[in-house]
């Protein structure tokens, strides 16, 4: 179960306690507040707080004191201009704070994005729950033969069964020993900060993650990409659904120019010009390496 009964009660109480405000609010985000969106087998994301909306981005870009006389169409055009030309500071005027429950090995990838404020559940003071990420059978895959950090074909048959059994058995055994080490029944009990070292990387942790929209878009551009690892991509996908309801104009521009767009090198752009002129261009005549050419071909 992704959320505990205590967390469900807390969410219900927070959603029931509404407060009047003069600040900008977004109906779509108000609906998301505190609601847990399930990810993987035991994980979730939920919005704790947010600041700003599409108009806040435009206000910052225009450095005005109000909405002014600009129409929604003007605002959307401005946002698309800002996104198209890689302007960043207006998007930094919006912020979001998320509560995320995720496997430790996913958290170690996630924390590489160092442009957020993070406060993680501490296993020095508290006892971690007996919850582990166990992949669905269809998500067990062999090492890719063309990408050192990717997956290849799915495992099947006896090999897949054996891997799942190892993951479940090893996780259970490690947690049993963790509980035994910290127990104070007829022994002193090992300090929690030491006992945690024996826990596997697929155990779940939790954190609060606060980030501005510019840096969130950077995170999503990398982690919602089809080449990202599945276990972090599903979190990015869930966040994308939230951001759509928060800043629809900004997300639309992001989806068009970043998620659905491509950045070309000078050599690649020259190849496109030559192709449009009717020339047959090959990897040998492109000036690009085999890896660059392979990526270039995948764009079309």
Question: In sequence order, what are the helices and strands, one letter per element?
Answer: HHEEHHEHEEEHHEHHHHHH
Structural class: alpha+beta
Strand order of the largest sheet: 1-2-3-7-4
Work out the strand percent: 5-15%
Overall mean confidence score, pLDDT: 92
- Total helical elements: 13
Pathway: Pyrimidine metabolism; dTTP biosynthesis
Binding site for dUMP: 109-112, 120-124, 196, 223
GO biological process, one term: dTTP biosynthetic process
Pfam family, one: Thy1
Description:
It is a single chain. The chain has helices at residues 5-16, 27-32, 54-62, 72-84, 104-110, 157-182, 192-195, 213-223, 230-246, 248-259, 266-276, 283-286, 290-297, and strands spanning 37-39, 43-51, 95-103, 117-120, 141-143, 151-154, 204-212. With 300 residues, the chain is an alpha+beta fold. It folds into three domains: 5-133 and 202-259, Gyrase A, domain 2 (2-Layer Sandwich), CATH 3.30.1360.170; 136-200; 266-297, no CATH class. Strands 1-2-3-7-4 form a five-stranded antiparallel sheet. The protein has a two-stranded antiparallel ribbon with strand order 5-6. Helix 3 (54-62) crosses helix 4 (72-84), helix 4 runs parallel beside helix 10 and helix 9 packs across helix 10 (248-259). The relative contact order is 0.14.
């Amino acid at each position: 179960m992704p959320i505990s009964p205590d967390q469900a009660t807390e969410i219900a109480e927070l959603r029931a306690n509404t407060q009047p405000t003069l600040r900008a609010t977004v109906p779509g985000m108000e609906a998301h507040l505190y609601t847990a969106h399930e990810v993987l087998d035991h994980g979730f994301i939920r919005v704790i707080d947010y600041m700003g909306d599409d108009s806040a981005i435009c206000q910052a870009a225009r450095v005005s004191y109000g909405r002014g006389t600009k129409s929604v169409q003007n605002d959307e055009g401005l946002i698309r201009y800002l996104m198209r030309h890689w302007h960043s500071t207006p998007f930094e005027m919006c912020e979001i704070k998320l509560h995320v429950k995720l496997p430790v090995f996913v958290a170690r990838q996630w924390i590489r994005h160092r442009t957020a404020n993070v406060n993680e559940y501490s296993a020095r003071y508290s006892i971690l729950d007996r919850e582990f990420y166990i992949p669905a059978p269809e998500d067990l895959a062999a090492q890719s033969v063309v990408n050192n950090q990717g997956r290849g074909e799915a495992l099947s048959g006896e090999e897949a069964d054996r891997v799942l059994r190892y993951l479940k058995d090893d996780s259970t055994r490690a947690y049993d020993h963790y509980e035994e080490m910290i127990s104070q029944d007829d022994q002193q009990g090992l300090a929690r900060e030491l006992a945690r070292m024996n826990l596997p990387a697929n155990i779940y942790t939790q954190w609060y993650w606060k980030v501005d929209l510019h840096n969130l878009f950077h995170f999503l551009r990398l982690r919602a990409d089809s080449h990202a690892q599945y276990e972090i991509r599903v979190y990015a996908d869930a966040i994308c659904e939230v951001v759509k309801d928060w800043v629809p104009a900004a997300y639309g521009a992001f989806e068009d120019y970043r998620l659905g767009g491509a950045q070309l090198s000078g050599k690649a752009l020259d190849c496109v010009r030559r192709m449009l002129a009717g020339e047959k261009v090959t990897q040998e005549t492109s000036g690009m390496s085999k890896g660059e050419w392979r990526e270039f071909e995948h764009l079309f």
